[in-house]
User: Which sequence fits this backbone?
């Protein structure tokens, strides 16, 4: 019987997975194998992935299917949607600056 | 060198998996190209390696997805995962970007099984981080085992509302409210069609009953008019709507505190591949929007180009599987000239049944004019380029007669998503002014159909290695 009393303590749903660490703009973030980069960043409280180029408003993952490009980050020199990239230990992620998308 | 196959299937969801397995079973060489790490598409999305999501019991989608992935592994289908198709040409030539740069393949028959994107009708604050698509939330929850928020409002229309809310509550999260655009009579009117799939109907009713018993507040015939919070979601405004899903004027919104909003207003078929190849399309609101014309064998107006699954009109995953198998048989006939085994009749009956249920759900989610009317002038419609409704309307006032003129004047649809997020709604806004969706048209598809890092296309090179021809004598 589901309950709906208190807000979730963590965004992570309980699972068995190995702990790994990724860095986002130089900051170490605890992640778990099987996370996408987007899910790991959200679970670590990182909601703002970039700002929109024209109005400069904050943006984060939206469609979670690789279509909207709102969660675009730079990994290995290439800009990719963070929702479709699995984490690996030591993965280096950089946010994309507005003027070099 | 360009590898050749007898058939190429684009998209590894239910339709693409079924089509490619069927084509291979008939003895033809077939390549399945898919952008994800493993086949499955969105509904049957596989978890990333290393994630043990626990026992599979009770999750029918995961069971079906695993079963199809097993069939693929046991087949002669060649699978190119993590390959993003960026161009499709006549002949057929398919170019895709993988980890080793761009590759091209050729085939005599092509199956587009490209599925859909989710429609979210814009409202004030919908670009705020913490607002997610409803279909996207199913991927987050099921394939990535992550909650959208600690206290979530689930809004929009269709069967995913209860599915997502139930998954959140049973995963330890809290649902602040469910906000359903449709009314009880919208659902009741579709009961006969839903009764054709008693398993799905029973599952939906079980979800609803458990959510109600858990005390989740339910707002029927209501919508979200605004999100509060600048950099993250702090609360949403809930307002009642009329029968055309237009917010009722003068009604005070209910403010609901939450830290995330998941919201979806149906699905839109992806017509990139059929559009690039110049197949004939028609507009059908109940099927999600613009769809490629196809005959009873799922062949489009381009000979050898087939379309299967929701990319050819929304009917849901069960129908997509049956369509994929039928399209696979049709491709085999196209390639060999022989008709295939006698399971066509069974598949067609299965498809009819699946389409009754899936079709009713698609009609429930179909876009109504009232939803488009409700988009306020200052609301951003194109998220990539921050183009507001007022700018789209101004373009029509200035003489734009279709969406492509409007796009050229406003940059609406020119950002990195290439109009996938806004295309349907932007066309609906233009359509209200120019005499309908057929007049308004659809964004022209041009390659590359996905963002393409030019460095990946050219590969690594040294300028010194580029031969420079001798200058012509003066």
Assistant:
């Amino acid at each position: 019987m589901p309950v709906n009393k208190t807000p979730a303590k963590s965004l992570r749903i309980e699972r068995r997975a190995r702990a790994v660490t990724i860095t986002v703009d130089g900051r170490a973030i605890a992640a778990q194998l099987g996370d996408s980069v987007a899910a790991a960043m959200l679970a670590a409280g990182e909601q703002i992935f970039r700002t929109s180029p024209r109005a400069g408003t904050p943006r984060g993952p939206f469609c979670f299917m690789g279509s909207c490009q709102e969660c675009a980050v730079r990994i290995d020199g290439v800009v990719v949607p963070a929702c479709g990239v699995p984490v690996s230990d030591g993965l280096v992620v950089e946010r994309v600056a507005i003027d070099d998308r | 060198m360009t590898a050749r196959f007898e058939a190429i299937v684009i998209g590894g969801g239910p339709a693409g998996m079924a089509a490619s397995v069927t084509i291979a079973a008939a003895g033809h060489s077939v390549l399945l190209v898919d952008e994800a790490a493993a086949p499955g598409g969105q509904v049957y999305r596989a978890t990333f390696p290393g994630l043990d999501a626990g026992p599979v019991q009770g999750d029918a989608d995961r069971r079906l997805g695993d079963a199809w992935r097993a069939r693929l592994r046991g087949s002669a289908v060649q699978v190119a995962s993590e390959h993003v198709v960026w161009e499709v040409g006549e002949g057929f030539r398919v170019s895709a970007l993988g980890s080793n740069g761009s590759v091209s393949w050729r085939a005599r028959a092509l199956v587009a099984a490209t599925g859909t994107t989710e429609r979210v009708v814009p409202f004030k604050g919908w670009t705020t981080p913490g607002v997610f698509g409803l279909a996207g939330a199913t991927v987050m929850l099921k394939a990535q085992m992550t909650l959208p928020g600690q206290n979530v409002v689930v809004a929009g229309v269709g069967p995913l509302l209860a599915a997502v809310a139930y998954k959140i509550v049973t995963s330890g999260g809290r649902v602040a409210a469910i906000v359903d655009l449709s009314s009880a009579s919208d659902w009741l009117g579709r009961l006969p069609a839903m009764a054709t799939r008693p398993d799905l109907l029973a599952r939906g009713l079980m979800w609803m009953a458990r959510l109600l018993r858990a005390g989740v507040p339910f707002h029927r015939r209501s919508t979200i008019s605004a999100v509060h919070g600048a950099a993250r979601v702090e609360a949403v405004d809930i307002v009642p709507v009329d029968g055309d899903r237009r917010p009722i004027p003068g009604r005070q919104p209910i403010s609901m505190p939450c830290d995330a909003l998941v919201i979806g207003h149906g699905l839109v078929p992806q017509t990139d591949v059929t559009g690039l190849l110049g197949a004939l399309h028609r507009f059908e609101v109940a099927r999600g929007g613009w769809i490629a014309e196809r005959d009873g064998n799922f062949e489009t107006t381009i000979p050898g180009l087939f379309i299967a699954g929701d990319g050819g009109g929304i009917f849901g995953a069960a129908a997509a599987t049956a369509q994929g198998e039928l399209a696979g048989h049709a491709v085999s006939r196209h390639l060999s000239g022989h008709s295939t085994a006698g399971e066509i009749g069974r598949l067609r009956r299965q498809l009819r049944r699946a389409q009754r249920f899936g079709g009713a759900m698609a009609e429930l989610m179909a876009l109504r004019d009232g939803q488009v009317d409700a988009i306020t002038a200052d609301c951003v419609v194109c998220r990539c380029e921050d183009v507001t409704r007022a700018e789209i309307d101004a373009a029509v006032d200035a003489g734009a007669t279709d969406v492509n003129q409007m796009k050229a004047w406003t940059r609406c649809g020119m950002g990195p998503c290439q109009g996938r997020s806004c295309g349907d709604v932007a066309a609906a806004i233009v359509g209200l002014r120019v005499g309908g969706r057929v007049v308004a048209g659809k964004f022209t598809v041009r390659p590359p159909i996905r963002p393409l890092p030019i460095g990946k296309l050219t590969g690594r090179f040294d300028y010194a290695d580029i031969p420079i021809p001798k200058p012509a004598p003066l």
About this structure: Residues 37 and 87 of chain A are 5 Å apart (CA to CA).
